[in-house]
Amino acid sequence: MKYGAVGDGISDDTSAFQKTWDSACNGSSKMGSVYVPSGKAFLLNSLHFRGPCKSKPLLFTMDGKMKAQSDPNKWQKGENGIIPWLIFERVEGLVISGRGLLDGQGKGWWDIHCRDHPGPNCIWLAPTMMTFSNCRNVILKSLRFRNSAQSHVLVMGSQNVHIKDIKIKSPEVSPNTDGVHITSSSAVFITHSDFATGDDCVSIGDQVHDLSVTFVNCGPGHGVSVGSLGRGGTEVAVEDIRVAHVNFTGTTNGARIKTWPGGTGYVRGIEFFDIRFASVQNPIIIDQFYGCAPNCVQTEKAVHIEKVKYMKMSGTSRTEVAMKLECSGKNACSKVFMRDIDLSPANGIDSVTSLCSFVQGSTQGTIRPSSCIVSIQ
């Protein structure tokens, strides 16, 4: 409140927050701090929290409520279009924590999104709630996020990011409201968190390695997705991804890998372990024809998917094909391993089956429904 923030939920406190950050980041003390007090609601437009900072670590404690500007017509725009809401850039040693709530007030954006409201004035892109760009050694914990205009948390070009004990909630019908999206980053760890979204709970983009998603609840939403990758023929490099101890409830997908036809590069070293499904539409899915349905054709190139493990997975599918592994005939999925899979039909489904195209690998233990992987000894 030192720099003139009002905190009544009506007054625009953007300038006060920017001044507070600049002071904490460039101050003379070894440790900088920003405190958002409880009992207050702060209305904010786009904020760019730039580093590098003199202060390390920098503590950003949110115990109050932060509200995004709800009117798309009042949102700031940059040279490249819509500016995200809260951007942390080139910050090292950042700890964001507290008991507070970040409210994206995204309904105004959802109501003009082209997916559900096509027309000359519709939009595809909307502000991301919280972005970490080229940051290192970040901890994000204990906060609540709701109703983002688009993705809730974006991690890009960053290393050693720990996300834990957060809760993200947006309506199931809200467009493109990913929980956490990661791209061009390494050593990212997401744990003990709850996601209810209109898109992927966690989505893993290109140029990502050494990432884990553990002890997470997902639903509603589109599952935990590696991809989509390879759009426009781009070269992909994704490896060493672990998804473990996850509960999927009522999601459209569970453990998903999705690539576009025509891409190149690789997805490898992916492990799904100790997963529970409750009435999930596509519990286990590899889709190498993403974005081209219903008129897909084989392309000369495809992202190579290899060394994928599915272990200790059980629950119910609300579609007949509980395991769908559709790989490219030009670059078959290889070294796919399954162990102890037990999927049964949800209410209203008589039975479940598996479907495979160009999948090579091996199985161990009980596999239900029966595996369709081509065994390679």
Overview of the molecule:
This protein has 2 helices and 32 strands. The strands form 3 sheets. The chain has a 19-stranded parallel sheet that branches. An 11-stranded parallel sheet has the order 4-9-12-15-18-20-22-24-26-28-30. It has a single domain (88-375), classed as Pectate Lyase C-like (3 Solenoid), CATH 2.160.20. Strand 7 and strand 8 (81-82) form a beta hairpin. Helices cover 5% and strands 53% of the residues. By secondary structure, it is mainly beta. The mean pLDDT is 95. It has helices at residues 14-26, 107-110, and strands at residues 8-12, 32-36, 41-44, 47-50, 58-62, 65-68, 77-78, 81-82, 86-89, 92-97, 101-103, 130-133, 136-141, 144-146, 153-156, 159-164, 167-169, 180-183, 186-196, 202-204, 208-218, 224-229, 235-249, 253-259, 264-280, 282-287, 304-317, 321-326, 333-345, 353-357, 359-368, 374-375.
How would you concisely characterize the structure shown here?
The chain has 377 residues and is mainly beta. It has helices spanning 14-26, 107-110, and strands spanning 8-12, 32-36, 41-44, 47-50, 58-62, 65-68, 77-78, 81-82, 86-89, 92-97, 101-103, 130-133, 136-141, 144-146, 153-156, 159-164, 167-169, 180-183, 186-196, 202-204, 208-218, 224-229, 235-249, 253-259, 264-280, 282-287, 304-317, 321-326, 333-345, 353-357, 359-368, 374-375. The strands form 3 sheets. It has a 19-stranded parallel beta sheet that branches. Strands 4-9-12-15-18-20-22-24-26-28-30 form an 11-stranded parallel beta sheet.
Radius of gyration, rounded?
Answer: 22 Å
The assigned structural class equals: mainly beta
Give the proportion of residues in helices: under 10%
The name of the CATH superfamily reads Single-stranded right-handed beta-helix, Pectin lyase-like
Number of domains: 1
Distance N terminus to C terminus? Answer: 67 Å
**Shape from CA axes?**
elongated
CATH C-level name? Mainly Beta
Percentage of β-strand residues: over 45%
DSSP summary, beta strand count: 32
The helix tally amounts to 2
The main β sheet shows up as:
19 strands, parallel
CATH architecture: 3 Solenoid
Average pLDDT score: 95
Residue windows where pLDDT falls under 50 for at least 5 positions: none
Write the CATH fold name. Pectate Lyase C-like
Subcellular location: Secreted, Cell wall
Main location: secreted
Protein name: Probable polygalacturonase At3g15720
GO molecular function: polygalacturonase activity
